[in-house]
Amino acid sequence: MGAQQQQETNGKEAEEGGVGKRRKVDTDVTMDLDILDCPVCFLPLRPPIFQCTVGHAICSSCRDKLRDKCYLCSLPTAYNRCRMVEKVVESIKLACSNSSHGCTARITYYQKEEHEKGCQHAPCFCPETGCSFSGPTKVLLEHFLGEHDWCYGEKDLRYGKTYRIKTLLGVLGPTVLMGNDGRLFLVNMTMESLGGVISVCCVEPHISGSRFKCRLALSCGEPSYSQTTEFLTSSTNLHDGFPKDCFLFLVPKVLLGDTGTNPAATVCVTLKPQ
Ligand SMILES: [Zn+2]
Ligand SMILES: [Zn+2]
Ligand SMILES: [Zn+2]
Ligand SMILES: [Zn+2]
Questions:
Q1: Neighbouring C-alpha atoms within 13 Å toward the C-beta of 129
Q2: Whose CB has fewer CB within 10 Å in the chain, the N or C terminal residue?
């Protein structure tokens, strides 16, 4: 064990053996968060944090690169752990940016970005033109049903099971599917020059990488027509509206007539994890 490591280990033991009570004071503090960034790489400082002999604190990866010269004071130096700054960095807790959407997490400055990348309270957006509503998927769902009168195609969808979506060709606009795991899917039909275009997307705040296989089966007695296609759904927070680069299921214009609907046609959907 090198001298540096030995010193660090001893420091840890001394810290754990410390006495005295910590006081938690809930107070209104204003702070310039820039001081919690490494002055060399500008990334948030996270333990272990090191300081030069003058007292400039830098992150450990910058310490590894600079080794024996301080970037700030340009003096030859030996870096040591800076436990005071480590304690400060660990003790300052911030609210998640999604606190207004129900996230109660209090996180350190250096964990904030990581937390928010995966925060389940991050909002998704209403894709309706002219509507700026956003919220967690549960709240957004209520908004879709209450404000825009979108209909449920299925409230408790089991993966692998086939459901007949009665509303899909009966009305224009999105149909809501709710998986029995709480996942929200939208099946949207719009009219284009060639006919109706159906897209299916999974609404989630972060692209999780888990995609779903969707099987759409359209059948109609008059005029006689049937079409079945299997494709992968896209995953979106709807920030830019309905995804445009996803698979599009084309419903021939002849089936839809002037109204863009055909209540007599049957559309069945089956979703299952890929
Ligand atoms: Zn750095
Ligand atoms: Zn320095
Ligand atoms: Zn959060
Ligand atoms: Zn809306």
A1: 1
A2: N
| In CATH, 124-273 is 2.60.120 | no
Using the mean position of ligand 2's atoms as its centre, give its distance from the Cα of residue 71 in Å: 7
Å from CA of 45 to ligand 1 middle: 7
DSSP characters for 20-89? SPPPP--------GGGGB-TTT-SBP-SSEEE-TT--EEEHHHHHHHTTB-TTT--B---EE-HHHHHHH
Topology (CATH) of 29-118: Herpes Virus-1 (3.30.40)
Q: How far is the CA of 37 from the centre of ligand 1 (A)?
A: 8
What ligand is nearest to the CA atom of residue 115? 3
Residue 40 alpha carbon to ligand 1 centre in Å: 5
pLDDT tens digits for range 86-106: 999 999 999 999 998 889 999
Phi/psi-derived region of residue 160, left when phi > 0, alpha when psi is between -120 and 50, beta in every other case: left
Domain ranges of the chain: 29-118, 124-273
Do the domains 124-273 and 29-118 match in fold?
no
ipTM of the complex as predicted: 0.84
Q: Which residues surround ligand 1, an ion (CB under 5 A)?
A: 38, 40-41, 59, 62
